[in-house]
Specification:
Helix content is about 85%, strand content about 0%. The N and C termini lie far apart (about 95 Å). It is mainly alpha-helical and about 375 residues long.
């Protein structure tokens, strides 16, 4: 009778042989696992930044621009030296980066500000509203066309977000008298409009230009915009901050989480596209639920769970059909390129035949 070690070795050898025969599938599996891991890193970074912002707000600090400045400075310190080391001209004019950074700062400011009035679950959940604005913008700006199922998925997302707003409207006031959930929700939704404009602009840049340059310029110009706005609107708030070790750790944690998000996101978009990226971000909402229950000991309205299920279904429907539309578009483009190459080959061949016929005709004339 074979012992367990023999069975394990035999099974390992058999599996290795199968994997050698299916080398391509093995690479695909490892690639998928890597994308899933990176997607969860992004999801956790979103939840971590939300947790840091909510703790800062609960400690009575109202300085969202200062929080953002730490994050943009970290991006600048890491990525701008890489751009300077290349000694190359920017691939996109600096004023476009300034515009993208300005919009990004305003969107982040509104969302971080929302933690003063709303709960971490609502803020992270309502970020999904960005999908709605992106559909509208890409339809009119980039002439992107969507299928019926994509509209069904987007409609389900809107319905789920409406349920989330209703759950905040019904939330008991005795949980935290200082909170105004609907005001916080309005700030988040306004922030998602800025996110949508920024995402559409970055989508073009990421697909056509250098990703490192985009992140570096976003950090540089984001820092400049944040400094100007802090000088105009937030000087008194900074003076009121008590800089303890806990406060510094929270600001550093927020900056580190945002740095991770901005650094890893381009790789996930390149390796998997928006489908798995959107699905990975869904788990950040569950992190937010766990944080609110475990750390804040706050009960969550039952409508939130229904809203989460509805939005999850909607995003899955939208994302799956998004990948299908990408595949169809890629096939159409490939067919068009093939047809163009075929036409060029035909023209070349016809030109060569006509050239040969002309030379033959001239030879015949010369012989005569």
């Amino acid at each position: 009778m074979c012992d367990s070690a023999t069975i394990l070795i035999g099974g390992f050898c058999a599996s290795s042989a199968v994997l050698r025969l299916m080398g391509v599938k093995k690479k695909a599996v490892w690639g998928l696992l890597l994308v899933l891991l990176l997607g969860q890193i992004i999801s956790f970074s979103v939840a971590a930044s939300s947790f840091a912002s909510s703790l800062i707000a609960n400690l009575g600090v109202n300085a969202p621009l200062t929080q953002l400045l730490f994050a943009y400075l970290l991006l600048t310190i890491v990525y701008v030296p890489i751009i300077l080391h290349r000694r190359e001209k920017l691939q996109i004019a600096w004023y476009w980066y300034l515009a993208l950074a300005f919009i990004d700062v305003q969107g982040n400011y509104l969302v971080v500000k929302a933690y003063q009035y709303s709960y971490i679950t609502s803020v992270t959940f309502l970020d999904c509203f960005t999908v709605v604005w992106v559909i509208i913008l890409t339809w009119y700006v980039l002439a992107t066309r969507y299928s019926l199922w994509q509209f069904v998925g987007a409609g389900a997302c809107v319905a789920g977000l409406a349920l989330a707003l209703l759950s905040d409207a019904k939330s008991p006031d005795e949980q935290d008298p200082g909170k105004i959930p609907l005001l916080g929700d309005a700030l988040v939704i306004a922030g998602t409009v800025c996110y949508a404009f920024n995402n559409v602009g970055q989508e073009y840049c990421v697909k056509n230009k250098d990703r490192v340059e985009i992140v570096a310029m976003l950090g540089l110009f984001g820092s400049l915009v944040s400094v100007v706005q802090i000088f105009l609107f937030e000087r008194k708030s900074i003076e009121a901050i008590t800089w303890s070790s806990t406060m510094i750790s929270l600001f550093a944690g927020f900056a580190g989480a945002n740095f991770t998000f901005c650094s890893v996101t381009p790789f996930v978009l390149k390796m998997s596209g928006a489908t798995l990226f959107n699905l990975s971000l869904l788990t950040s909402d569950m992190w937010a639920v766990a944080i609110q229950i475990l750390f804040y000991h706050q009960q969550i309205n039952w409508l939130y769970y229904i809203a989460f299920i509805v939005v999850t279904i909607g995003l899955i429907i939208y994302s799956l059909n998004e990948s299908s539309s990408y595949d169809k578009q890629a096939s159409i483009e490939a067919a068009a390129q093939y047809q163009q190459l075929q036409d060029e080959d035909n023209l070349t061949e016809n030109g060569s035949n006509s050239g040969r016929q002309e030379r033959t005709h001239n030879d015949e004339i010369g012989i005569c």
